[in-house]
Write a structure and sequence with these properties.
155 residues; mainly alpha; 8 helices; Coenzyme Q (Ubiquinone) biosynthesis protein Coq4; Coq4
């Protein structure tokens, strides 16, 4: 039930958030284009992530999927909340982030230790939340992770 509540709020808030708060220019890159990037690149791995989860790139929200690829954090509701704690630790600040953290903490009090551990992991990584990832799609994923001190969860 708590996952349903958060998913519903996300669906309601997605369009107004993109319209009023996201000033980025959409990437206009398809999954098909991404999977033609070099096999070790961020772009290729992003394409694979989108295909694996049957996602389509969401204009102005592309960085969010990149964060999943870089960190290896999954896509369940509690993992999405964990991602926001990770990004908070990394220095990101946004209305969306604070909303997810507040609601996630209230609805998932049993996961607070996990959320705290993700916050600490985010603090240990070099700041990466603000980078222009469209310009980094050709970069090798592992090199980006090493440079940014990101230890992916699946490692």
């Amino acid at each position: 039930m708590r996952a349903f509540i958060l998913e519903t709020i996300y669906e309601w808030s997605k369009k107004p958030y993109k319209k009023w708060f996201k000033k980025e220019i959409p990437w206009d890159i398809s999954i098909k284009q991404l999977i033609y990037y070099p096999k070790n690149s961020l772009g290729f791995h992003l394409g694979c992530f989108l295909l694996k989860h049957d996602f389509t790139p969401q204009p102005k929200l592309e960085n969010h999927d990149v964060f999943h690829v870089l960190t290896g954090i999954g896509i369940s509701v509690s993992e999405e909340i964990s991602m926001q704690f990770y990004l908070l630790g990394n220095g990101k600040r946004s209305i969306y982030l604070f909303s997810v953290i507040l609601l996630g903490s209230l609805l998932y009090p049993d996961k607070l230790k996990t959320f705290k551990s993700f916050y600490i992991k985010g603090r240990k990584a070099h700041p990466f939340h603000q980078l222009n990832y469209k310009n980094l799609l050709y970069q090798p994923l592992k090199e980006l992770q090493t440079t940014l001190s990101i230890i992916p969860l699946w490692k």
